[in-house]
Fold this protein.
Amino acid sequence: MDQVRKNYDYILIDCTPSLGILPINAFVAADSIIVPSQPRILSTKGLDLLLHSYRKVQRSINPGLKIDGILFTMVDFRTNNDKSIVQSMRDTLGNGG
């Protein structure tokens, strides 16, 4: 990444929704991450596991790594469930604006 970084303003690395070696390598190479997430119970559990991996990589390999935000997808604010989960995640993780 260091060899091509100077040629681009942004480099996007799209990873599978897993906690395998590819996302870990992406965390190591990245300056920051944006995490897409659906407002569903299982997604919030997966997000918790991802944040745990993020903290481990940040602590041990890439101290400059930061989270630019959580990008909610497939949100239906007409449902109380989606509104509740999004608000809960904002309360827990912050609102960033």
Notes: The longest strand covers residues 66-72.
